[in-house]
Write a structure and sequence with these properties.
Radius of gyration: 16 Å
CATH superfamily: Thiamin diphosphate (ThDP)-binding fold, Pyr/PP domains
Distance between the termini: 16 Å
CATH architecture: 3-Layer(aba) Sandwich
Shape: globular
């Protein structure tokens, strides 16, 4: 686990090449198989490897956002233009999207979001806990089907199922990537 030196900089847990998680690469491969062309995101340490893969891709366009709800609107526009998207965000960003999530019910477009969780599993930051505790409820109350991956070995299967629901059955779907999976951050004074 990475130990943070100050509260203003958040980094992902340290890994060595031998222990580097492969699940972000599995997610990237699934997005490729489902012909995802646009990946809006708010920069997030938990999604950093996946974002790097998207930005290096010749078939996907990574689109940095200033706030997560922009991503929901971008997804509607991309769908109208014939392209699929997957929105990357952190659990705290779900709260920013509440009003925009109504678009998934109104327009019935293929909505897939991958949400890295905070506020659970050893969280050091008390500001992350309330939204982390209510992320699943907020999504479900907004009409979004929620699946969860807590261990690396289940990520591929969960994301594959979510992508199938979102892109084939037009069922708005979110995958919660648990804090246990991405690693808890630690604050040291």
């Amino acid at each position: 686990m990475h130990v943070r030196a100050d509260a203003s900089t958040e980094t992902a847990p340290e890994t060595t090449p031998e222990s580097a998680p492969i699940w972000p690469d599995e997610i990237f491969a699934i997005l490729q198989r489902f012909d995802v062309r646009q990946v809006p995101y708010v920069p997030d340490a938990g999604h950093s490897r996946l974002i790097e893969r998207v930005l290096a891709s010749s078939t996907m366009r990574g689109i940095p956002l200033t706030t997560e709800e922009e991503g929901v609107a971008l997804m509607v526009g991309a769908w109208a233009g014939g392209q699929r998207c997957a929105l990357l965000m952190q659990s705290s960003g779900v709260g920013n999207c509440i009003n925009m999530l109504s678009l998934t019910q109104i327009f019935r477009f293929p909505f897939l979001t991958l949400v890295t969780m905070r506020g659970e599993w050893g969280e050091f930051n008390p500001w992350q806990v309330p939204m982390g505790a209510s992320t699943q409820d907020v999504l479900e109350l907004s009409g979004i089907r929620v699946l969860r991956a807590s261990h690396a070995q289940e990520v591929r299967e969960v994301v594959e199922a979510a992508a199938g629901q979102a892109y084939n059955a037009l069922t708005p779907t979110a995958v919660l990537l648990s804090q246990r999976l991405i690693g808890a951050k630690v604050f040291v004074k």
